[in-house]
Each structure stands twice: as C-alpha cells, then as structure tokens.
Design brief:
This protein has helices at about 1-5, 15-40, 45-70, 80-85, 95-125, 130-175, 180-190, 210-215, 225-235, 240-270, 280-290, 295-330, 335-360, 365-390, 395-415, 425-440, 445-460. It is built from 17 helices and no strands.
Length: about 450
C-alpha cells in the first residue's frame, strides 16, 4: 500500500513539483479559466491571483511540516490516516468521516475531468459527446489501475511539461497573428474596453466586494486538496521542498497568466463569438485555427495531458481513502496490504462509473464543477489540516467538528447560493470557528499527543 499510494516516498523535487501542479491545474486551466477570461476579461485574473497566492502559501508553510509530521505519525499514507494518527484516534472516526467527504467531492471533481475530455474529443474528432466521455475516461482508468502512484506521478511530470508549453504557445501565436502586442491590445479594447479593467465585469458592471473575495478566495482551497497534499507527503526529503517550491511557482505564475491571456486574445481573434458552455473551448478553437494539423495534434495532446493528470490523481486518492480509511477501518482491520491494493483498484472502477454518469451532461461547465469540489475540499480539510499542523491545543473532536462543519456548509451553501458568495469562504470560516470552540471547551490533548507535536517543532525543516 505504501508503494501504491505514496510511491514509498521517493519522489525528487522536479517530479514532486510538476506532479503537484499538473494534478492541480488540470483541464480547467486550459479550458475553464480561458473560458472565464473570454467572457470577463482581466476580471477573471483575480482567480489566477488567488490561486498563485494559495499555491505559494501551501508550499511555503504546509509542505515541509506535513512531510515530516506524516512520517512521524506512524508513516501516514493518506490525509485521513494522518489525522487519525495525529490525534491517536482509536475510534477511527477521523479516518471514516474524512474518507466519506473525499469520496463525495472527488466524484464531483473527477467528473469535471471527464467533461473536459468529452469536449476535447467531441471538438477534435466530431464524435458524440457521450462516446467522447467514455473514451477519455477509459485511458485514465487504465493506467491508474495498472501503475498506482508512481505511474500517476511520472506521467504527471511529462503532462506538466506539455501543459506549460501549450498554454504559452497558443496565446503567443494568436498575438503574432494579430500583429503584435499593441495591435492585439487595440483589437481587444475596440471589442470591449472593459476587458482591461480588473474591477469591471465583461458586461460593464463594477465588481462587487462579494465577487472579489469569491474570486480571490479560490486560494483558500489549496490547504485542503488531498491530491496536492499527497505530493508533499511523497517527496523523498523535506530539504528538497525549497527547490520544488521554486519550480512550482515558476510554472504556476506563467501558466495562469497565459491561461487568462488565451481567453482575452481569443476574444479579439475569433470572428464568430462563442456562447454558453462553448466558451470553454476557446483554447481548442484557437489551436485549430492557428496551427497545422500536426502541431494542433501535439497541442491538443497537452489538453488531454492536463485532463489525465488530475483525473488520475483524484481517482487514486479517492480509491486510497476508500480502501485505507473506510474499508479497512470499518470492515476488515486485519486485511493484508495486497488485498487492500485490489480493493483500491476496484474502487477506481466504481468511483469512475459514478463520475462518468455525472459527466454525461454536455452543457456542464467545467469551471463550475471544479469550483464546487474545490470549495468542498478547501473548507472540509483546509482548516483541520492547518490547525493540526500549527496549533497544539487542537483536539480530536475539534478537528472532527471542523471537517463536518466545513463540508456540510459547502454542500448546503451551494444549494442556496446566498448573496452570491463562493461557498468556500463561509465553509472555511465556519470550520475554523468550530475547531477553535470545540477544542477549547474540551479536554486538552494528552501529553503523548503534544510531545509528538513538539518533536515536529524541534525538527530542522
């Protein structure tokens, strides 16, 4: 299981950083974010700013401490496993309940990748959408079943490189075709002068405070994403995280800026406007119009790479949570590792089937699906992880309360869409309050728990 889930913690800094970012950004960076920029212009850049800040904070403050603490806490292999070992929870509630939320939100998240794959194959090959979804999902499921974490991480590295060059080349070629940066800027300004004002929406209305914090609030989600956090746990040495941070941040800043540029430049380049969910195909449409069939094929492969890298990571983490944290804890505590690996593989198939069913709606917007799942993970696990790593007074019940309150807040808030506020904001806030209140009114953690916390503090990380 340690090999299948974490690759026995032997990833180098390049693979760790590229795998983390490739599994993070996925098809929504090449399709969802450019689609938002196509509609709203530079206003969509606030999402990129929030994501860049969140990425930096995650690598800077969480990565090293989590890497050391998970190894010290009985060599924890998953996020629920770490929480259970961190608080020495013999009831296994800190494995079972987090595993349930992981399954819920990863099914939603994985479906976004399958939607992106469906739109990709539909656009390229003119296949029926449902057939396209099945084709894209089949590729991802195959190598996730066959190779586990090392296969996912190794392919993520190559996929991350492909994504990086593709997202730079496409807007660069469009700008060149339009006559350069100045001519491109003039063309965009002529079509919609609001596109260059980050405080103005594409329709000319002024961005509200709620809209602003909702866009920037995407950055809060990083602290609770299991498929990203697991990369921190898998690096071979905490000392290599500084190098990995520099690589990751370079990739993220350039890629996100280019993704926003794709949408804005595409608005000026295309003569026929895109509407509805078709706006998320702007990257694909530009590629088709700007490049030869051979070059287009290579760039389209980068889109598939983006989709595959995240979907496979999510499937593996969700399957690991089911086998390691739910099935093992509830049904078969004494099961052998080999059998749990097979349970994980069966879980991949079951989770994929549900995600494929959710992805069958061709009108689904990738960014909307990702936003929902991103908020769920960020609110359910972000506060619990941060308090567990940095506040020694946090109790087992406090962490549990934060996970339940954060997850449920997102699920409920999403249904009512109160004040138009992105659900991660209230979810993260209420979860943090719940952790503090429940921890302070309960008994302090035992000396055994706090001694281990202090031991992590003393490590030179």
């Amino acid at each position: 299981m340690a090999d299948y889930i974490l690759g026995n913690r032997r990833l180098g800094p390049w693979v760790t950083s590229m795998s983390a970012e490739a599994s993070d950004m996925s098809g929504w960076m090449l399709m969802g974010l450019p689609g938002a920029a196509y509609v709203s212009g530079l206003n969509a850049g606030w999402i990129a700013v929030g994501l860049a800040l969140g990425t930096y904070a995650n690598w800077k403050f969480v990565a090293k401490r989590l890497r050391k603490y998970t190894e010290l806490a009985n060599n924890s292999l998953t996020l629920p496993d770490f929480l259970r070992n961190r608080y020495m929870d013999h009831s296994d509630l800190l494995r079972i309940i987090p595993a349930i939320f992981i399954l819920i939100f990863f099914i939603i998240y994985t479906s976004s990748g399958f939607v992106a794959g469906g739109k990709l194959f539909e656009t390229i090959f003119h296949l029926p959408y449902n057939v396209s979804v099945l084709l894209g999902a089949g590729v991802v499921i195959f190598y996730t079943l066959a190779g586990g974490f090392l296969a996912v991480a190794a392919t993520d590295f190559i996929q991350g490189v492909m994504m990086f060059f593709a997202i730079i080349i496409v807007p660069g070629m469009a700008i060149y075709a339009l006559g350069g940066i100045n001519d491109t800027a003039s063309a965009i300004n002529l079509i919609n002068p609001n596109f260059f004002n980050p405080l103005i929406n594409g329709d000319g209305s002024t961005i509200t405070f709620i809209s602003f914090i909702s866009l920037v609030g995407w950055g809060l989600g990083y602290f609770g994403q299991p498929h990203i956090l697991v990369r921190f746990m898998a690096i071979r040495n905490a000392k290599e995280i500084s190098q990995a941070t520099h690589i990751a941040m370079t990739w993220v800043v350039i890629s996100l800026a280019s993704a926003v540029a794709v949408g804005m430049v595409g608005h000026a380049y295309l003569t026929s406007p895109l509407d509805g969910s078709a706006t998320e195909t702007i990257f694909l449409v530009l590629t088709h119009e700007l490049f030869s069939p051979f070059a287009s094929g290579l760039i389209m492969a980068a889109v598939l790479a983006a989709i595959m890298s995240t979907a496979s990571s999510q499937l593996l983490v969700a399957a690991s949570a089911f086998a390691q944290d739910f099935y093992r804890a509830v049904f078969c505590k004494g099961k052998e590792a080999k059998e749990l690996v097979w349970i994980s593989r069966i879980s991949v198939l079951a989770i994929s089937a549900i995600a494929i069913a959710l992805a069958m709606n061709p009108d689904s917007l990738i960014l909307d699906i990702v936003a929902y799942a991103w908020a769920g993970f960020g609110a359910a696990f972000g506060p619990a992880l941060l308090f567990s790593l940095f506040w020694r007074r946090t109790t087992r019940n406090g962490a549990l309360a934060g996970i339940v309150v954060g997850g449920l807040t997102v699920l409920i808030w999403k249904q009512f869409a109160l004040w138009g506020l992105y659900e991660i904001i209230p979810g993260f806030l209420f979860a943090s309050i719940a952790i503090i209140i429940v921890s302070l009114i309960g008994e302090p953690p035992s000396n055994e728990i706090t001694d281990r916390f202090d031991e992590v503090d003393k490590m030179k990380i």
